[in-house]
Amino acid sequence: MSGWIRVQDRHYKVWPEGLPYSLEPLTGSVFDNLRKTAAGSPETPAVIYYDRVITYRELLDQVFKLAGFLAQKAGVRKNDRVLLYVQNSPQLIIGYYAILAANAVIVPVNPMSRVSELEHIASDADARVAIFGSENTQTIQPLIDAGRLRMAVSTRYADYAASAATSDLPEIVSNAPPEPVGVPSVIPWRRFYSAASATRSARPPPAR
Question: Nearest Cα to 141, choosing from 119, 111, 124, 112?
Fold first, then answer.
């Protein structure tokens, strides 16, 4: 088959000179990438949320604290499923990496999901722990009352906004309901930072 060129070779003739045609796969995990970035650029902004700047150093510190809480207080073990039921926010990023740091599996949930959808997802994934935005308290409450979830961490998005930006916050941020109180299995987001268990003892996931 003279003159035949494999499809994957066609782009080589316009490939930038001196660059390799392929890359070796990384040996570390997604969480390892965050840890390496924080070590090399600790004061670089990682998240900017309504004028609030969170550096990579701060991000990693909060990830470790939440991961420690999940592992030590919420009983999350390797390969356990954890529901991540929040809007786009710093809490989504922190929760994502914290679940990985606790050696668990992220189960992303559309924050518009209703009770029946949430029940199906939790049951299908066999998830017993959740991180959720306080605007969805009424949606997740039936799962807590029924014992489907043994523990859930509740958060308010306005907590991460800079005070100077509060007048410009959208409704879902500025008027989010308060975190539930008086429910033993529902932990306000801010509590794990002061808890004795909020340490850097959560193990990172093994390299994949």
Answer: 119
In angstroms, the CA 5 to CA 12 distance is: 11
Gyration radius of the chain's alpha carbons: 21
Tell me what pLDDT residue 102 has.
93
Domain boundaries, the chain: 26-194
Written out in words, the top-level CATH class of the domain with range 26-194 is alpha beta
Q: What is the pLDDT of residues 38-51, one digit of tens each?
A: 999 999 999 999 88
Structure tokens, 146: 């029924």
Helices (H), 45-163: 56-72, 90-101, 115-125, 137-145
For residues 191 and 159, what is the distance between their CA atoms, to the nearest angstrom?
13
d(CA 148, CA 122): 8
In this predicted model, what pLDDT tens digit does every residue of 125-170 receive, in sequence order?
999 999 999 999 999 999 999 999 999 999 998 888 876 566 677 8
Nearest to 39 by CA among 49, 51, 31: 31
Q: Is 3 left (phi over 0), alpha (psi -120 to 50) or beta?
A: left
